[in-house]
Amino acid sequence: MTTIQDKKAQFQLKTPKGTRDYDEKEMTIRNSLFATITNIFQRHGAVTIDTPVFEMRDILSGKYGEDSKLIYDLANQGGEDCSLRYDLTVPFARYLAMQGKKDAQQMKRYQIAKVYRRDQPVMTKGRLREFYQCDFDIAGQYDPMIPDAEVLKILCETLDAVDIKFKIKLNHRQILDGIFQVSGVPSNKIRSISSAVDKLDKLSWQDVKKEMTVEKGLDESVADRIGTYVEGLKGKDTASLLQYLQNDVEFMKNASASQGVADVRLLLEFLDVFNVKDRVHLDLSLARGLDYYTGIIYEAVQTESEGVGSIAAGGRYDDLVGMFSGTNKNGKSKTIPCVGVSVGVERVFSILMARQNMEKIKSTATQVYIISVGDGLLKERMALVNELWEAGIKASFMLKNKPKLEKQWLACEKEQIPFAVILGKDELENAKVRIKDMRVNVL
Amino acid sequence: MTTIQDKKAQFQLKTPKGTRDYDEKEMTIRNSLFATITNIFQRHGAVTIDTPVFEMRDILSGKYGEDSKLIYDLANQGGEDCSLRYDLTVPFARYLAMQGKKDAQQMKRYQIAKVYRRDQPVMTKGRLREFYQCDFDIAGQYDPMIPDAEVLKILCETLDAVDIKFKIKLNHRQILDGIFQVSGVPSNKIRSISSAVDKLDKLSWQDVKKEMTVEKGLDESVADRIGTYVEGLKGKDTASLLQYLQNDVEFMKNASASQGVADVRLLLEFLDVFNVKDRVHLDLSLARGLDYYTGIIYEAVQTESEGVGSIAAGGRYDDLVGMFSGTNKNGKSKTIPCVGVSVGVERVFSILMARQNMEKIKSTATQVYIISVGDGLLKERMALVNELWEAGIKASFMLKNKPKLEKQWLACEKEQIPFAVILGKDELENAKVRIKDMRVNVL
């Protein structure tokens, strides 16, 4: 023990805070989860792209609202300020802007990759500082709500495929903006008041109101008016909520509000065709912290157990690409409208792992294990395994000169290898092998 | 243009130096390359693990010799000094040390992941600052040269599978140490003189000798003696080289040297059984810069064209895990002997891309495209595509209310989708669709 202590004085044998390793069994589950999700994304015609793990720092700044403080910076060792990516959405928008006139004007793309946030880690809940996101986005000028409906369909297919019970909370930035405008929020305070509303899933209305008034200097009467919408209408189903808003004459006079309501109505028509309308629930208290959303926003929450919170989220962001691509000669923005969803796969992974019988997970793909009886027969085993490899068969043998018979059987069983090929003196003399079907033991 | 200039004043629309995006066609080739390599790695019984993209800085320090200056550091924003991983070998050794008494004492593992080096990028040659490595390693106490032979067999299978012409240069750290000891290199200079020898593939013997003597203060007579081995024996084939060394009585008296020669002889016997002996060429000038190798070392170089250099490399590193795991109660190192190979897949990728007809790469997996004739039929197309999705069929449609017929055909052809399903008024009335086999056009 002392020596380990001595060593510890020199370095800590650990992964950095909020990061972790994944062993072979966890990887087996994770890769099967990714394969399931990839299959769904490809079913909807998506291609995949790859972007660097870090971006120029200026690309990320001003995109994440109050959460920008969670961005990891690289040390400046060579003249460029870079940061690890915070999500896959901003890099995708940067990618689209850089592609210029290429085919990327219209694109369905998925990306399954790691992102980085200096958040307070809660390892047991799957909240890490390095974690995977599975993103699907549709970029391009299409007709209203068609891509939005497809993205929500994909989200439902994905969570169904991994057998997660969920519901989707839906809102629209223009409905929210309408609420804020009708309630009398000054336009320079809209984003920060929106951030406060976003906390309603964790804080009480009283606490959120306090943040609006005491911290953010909003008039109490304005806050109360916001409250009639975001708190007072809670529990209403989507149809009654839409009806209520449409009956609110003052609200519907607001251009932003009425556009938002029309969008949601059209979206629900399409979701009905896609058989997922009942999965989606209009929730006026859903705000989403990120700055870049411009249209519908949504969040999938698990309904089986408390506390896991949001497992996927997304929305429409029509102006983000334009923030990078600028304007054309006539001063018109060269933006590309986009809508997408990001599945927080670590939380899904935690749920799946909890369901597993770890013993039964087979981590290798090995089909055949070669076992020698008697005197080692190293080169004979090597020649045989080589023959199998060259025939494309996944085969293993014990990397010892004279392995014990018992240890070879154990290795074969432990790895759940379906076939054992037994080689002994008799077999060699007759140029034969014995094959044992191990699957009866495995099942 | 002025507006773009204005924007450029605020940020640069680019990826960081030495990094790049991969578009959908490049990803199609890259994913198929990874699938090929993964299949080979799994054929040899490997599992996969995942480790974080960054490590505690102390874990990486002192492992990479003169190249340590190329490590990317993260800014210290939260109390820990972290760096991006430089390779996958050191994190794997750290992982093994942390697993302690678990099954990881013996492990075949592969990992395909990005590593980071602040090197001078040469994009045209595929030398980037962020790049993929495909690693296969065998950890555990086995009998001599059996795992080493399997790793070299895997390297040959991998490069054969991607149709790269190559040869493998082989050396042994103990042979090199023997050469240095016999030549009279002081023991504290062995690693730095070894680094100089490693440059013989880029520099002339005169330049390397100058580095040894002028820069590193080695006696000229010692340098000359090294030269008789690493330069004087160039061009000899493996068998004559081994014979030459075995006839060198003084050399063979050195314990390190004779062990190295014995290892290489045994390795060649095993490689012969694995049908890859002729791929491997003993080369006394191969040194490999990294500090952690202890046994055989090797490098695969492409033989088709000049200048691409090493496309894969590896070796045995028996002490690296012990640097993390320390010693047991009796002061005995708790190390795990390892041997492995790392395929520098970016270079292979560059070669593969150069062979492609970009037009013919199909990036989506879409099987069916739905085309409406006449009046848009949006909801009818949506209902049909939904039916296909729910049957697991990869299907797409144009996300427009009333898409033009010609544009729909173009989209179908451009994505090389094999089947078009045509929906019109007549078809709807008869509850039928027309199916067109598009593959004749594609081929």
From TrEMBL, chains A, B:
<dbReference type="InterPro" id="IPR006195">
    <property type="entry name" value="aa-tRNA-synth_II"/>
</dbReference>
<feature type="binding site">
    <location>
        <position position="133"/>
    </location>
    <ligand>
        <name>L-histidine</name>
    </ligand>
</feature>
<dbReference type="GO" id="GO:0004821">
    <property type="term" value="F:histidine-tRNA ligase activity"/>
</dbReference>
<comment type="similarity">
    <text>Belongs to the class-II aminoacyl-tRNA synthetase family.</text>
</comment>
<dbReference type="InterPro" id="IPR041715">
    <property type="entry name" value="HisRS-like_core"/>
</dbReference>
<dbReference type="GO" id="GO:0006427">
    <property type="term" value="P:histidyl-tRNA aminoacylation"/>
</dbReference>
<dbReference type="GO" id="GO:0005739">
    <property type="term" value="C:mitochondrion"/>
</dbReference>
<dbReference type="GO" id="GO:0005829">
    <property type="term" value="C:cytosol"/>
</dbReference>
<feature type="binding site">
    <location>
        <position position="288"/>
    </location>
    <ligand>
        <name>L-histidine</name>
    </ligand>
</feature>
<dbReference type="GO" id="GO:0032543">
    <property type="term" value="P:mitochondrial translation"/>
</dbReference>
<keyword id="KW-0067">ATP-binding</keyword>
<dbReference type="InterPro" id="IPR045864">
    <property type="entry name" value="aa-tRNA-synth_II/BPL/LPL"/>
</dbReference>
<feature type="domain" description="Aminoacyl-transfer RNA synthetases class-II family profile">
    <location>
        <begin position="18"/>
        <end position="354"/>
    </location>
</feature>
<dbReference type="InterPro" id="IPR004516">
    <property type="entry name" value="HisRS/HisZ"/>
</dbReference>
<keyword id="KW-0030">Aminoacyl-tRNA synthetase</keyword>
<feature type="binding site">
    <location>
        <begin position="87"/>
        <end position="89"/>
    </location>
    <ligand>
        <name>L-histidine</name>
    </ligand>
</feature>
<dbReference type="InterPro" id="IPR033656">
    <property type="entry name" value="HisRS_anticodon"/>
</dbReference>
<dbReference type="InterPro" id="IPR015807">
    <property type="entry name" value="His-tRNA-ligase"/>
</dbReference>
<keyword id="KW-0436">Ligase</keyword>
<keyword id="KW-0547">Nucleotide-binding</keyword>
<dbReference type="Pfam" id="PF13393">
    <property type="entry name" value="tRNA-synt_His"/>
</dbReference>
<dbReference type="InterPro" id="IPR036621">
    <property type="entry name" value="Anticodon-bd_dom_sf"/>
</dbReference>
<dbReference type="GO" id="GO:0005524">
    <property type="term" value="F:ATP binding"/>
</dbReference>
<dbReference type="GO" id="GO:0003723">
    <property type="term" value="F:RNA binding"/>
</dbReference>
<keyword id="KW-0648">Protein biosynthesis</keyword>
<dbReference type="InterPro" id="IPR004154">
    <property type="entry name" value="Anticodon-bd"/>
</dbReference>
<feature type="binding site">
    <location>
        <begin position="292"/>
        <end position="293"/>
    </location>
    <ligand>
        <name>L-histidine</name>
    </ligand>
</feature>
<protein>
    <recommendedName>
        <fullName>histidine--tRNA ligase</fullName>
        <ecNumber>6.1.1.21</ecNumber>
    </recommendedName>
</protein>
<dbReference type="Pfam" id="PF03129">
    <property type="entry name" value="HGTP_anticodon"/>
</dbReference>
<feature type="binding site">
    <location>
        <position position="137"/>
    </location>
    <ligand>
        <name>L-histidine</name>
    </ligand>
</feature>
<feature type="binding site">
    <location>
        <position position="117"/>
    </location>
    <ligand>
        <name>L-histidine</name>
    </ligand>
</feature>
